[in-house]
Amino acid sequence: MSALARYIPSARLAAIGAGLAVLVIVLDQASKLWVLHGLGFMEGGPGTRIEVLDPWFNLTMVWNRGVSFGLFAAESMWTRLLLIGFSLAIAGVIAFWLTRAERKLQALAFGLIIGGAVGNVIDRIAYGAVADFLDFSGLWFPYVFNVADAAISVGVAGLVLDVIVNGSERKGADAPGKVSD
Q: For this structure, is 132 an active site residue?
C-alpha cells in the first residue's frame, strides 16, 4: 500500500475527530452560557441551584479552579496560566495523535478529549475558573461537572476500550509471523 493510500483514511478519521471536537466545544460553551447567563447562575454565584429531578439530578453552580474534580486548585494568575498552557499542550499532543488515528473509535475518543480540554480552557480564559453545573450527587456521584468534563471522561473510556479491543492488533510486517513482500 502506498504512503498516500495510508494517509487518506487517517485524514478522513482526523476530520471526523476534529469535527467532533468542534461540536463538543460548541455544546459545552452553549450550555455554560445558558446556565451562567440564561438561568442567572453568574449573578447567583457558587451554590446557586435549580432542582431538576431532585434528588437525582440538579443544576448546581460550582467554580472549579483546579483540574479534574478540583485537584490542584489554581488560585493565582500564574497557576491558572500554567493550567491553561498544560491543557493546550495536552490538546496539541492529542491532536497530533488524531492525525495518525487508525480506527474510528480512536478518532472519536481523541476528538472528545480535545473538545473537552479546549472547552475548559475557554472558561479559564474567560472567567478564571471552569463553570461546573451538572450535579448527580443524588446518585452517589459527589462531583459537579460540565459537558467538557463528560466529553473528556467518555473520550478516555473510549481510548481504554480501543486498547482492550484492538490493543494487540498490529498492521503489516510488524505482526508476529507475518512476512512482508
A: yes
